[in-house]
Model the fold of this input.
Amino acid sequence: MTSALQSEKYAVETPEVVTIEYVVAGVASRCLAASVDTTLILLLQAMLSLVMLPIASNNGLGTIILALWATLAFALLWGYYVSFEMLWSGQSPGKRIFGLRVMREGGRPLDFSAAVIRNLVRIVDFLPFGYGLGVLVMFVDHRARRLGDLAAGTLVIREAYPLSLEQIARGLDPVVVPPRNSAAPTSPLLPNLHQVGPDDYALAEAFLRRRETLHQEERQLLATELANALRTRLDLPSDGDPERFVEHFVREYRIFYLVGQE
Done:
C-alpha cells in the first residue's frame, strides 16, 4: 500500500478518451493547510468573543447571548470552509497557500452539497482532538481521504500549474516533421503564410519538439490552442487534427521561408 505521506496519482478518463492524472495531496501538506485555516478560524472566533462576551456579562440576557455566541462560533467554524471552498472552487486560504484543491471523484468540481457534507463530518474527523480520527483515516486510505471526503465522495489534490505555449518556446532545436509528398509543388501548400511570423513558427516548432514530454491532456490542449491560433492567422477553418496541422504548418513555413530567401 502506498503511504499517505507519498504522492499518489489519481487518473480520470474523459468521454473523449483522454486520461487526466491528478496528484493526490498527502497527509503532511493537508495538515499544513489545516494549520493555517485553524489559525485563521481561531483569530475570527477570538474577535467574536471580544465582542460578544462583554455584552453577555453586562446584560440581563447573558444566557441567551452566550447561546448566540456558541451558535455563531459553530457557524463560523463550519461556514468558513464551505464559503471559501465555494468561492475559490475547492480551496480554503490554507489550501490555496499550499497549492491544494478539493474536487469530487471523477475529476468533477466541488459542488455545494459535497462541500456541506465533507465539512459537517469534519466534527467527527476532529475527534478526540486535533483531527486525530481524521488523520488516522487518511493514513489508512490510499488517497489520504478523511471521513468527510469518504462521505462526500471528494478528494484533495495538488494544484496543477498550467503550462503555457510560451513556456515551451525555449532552447529550440530543429524538429523533424513528416516529409512532403514528392509530387508536391515547390511553393507552400498553405495560404497566407505572410500573415504569420518567425515567432509563430518558433512556437510551433517548440511544441513539436517538446510534445513527447508532455502529459496527454497538456499535449492535446496545447496542440488545439496553437492550431486554432495559427488557423485564425491564416484565415483557415478550425477543423482536422490539431497536431497534424501544426506539423503541416512547420513544414510549409520552411518552404515559404526558403522561397523568400531565393
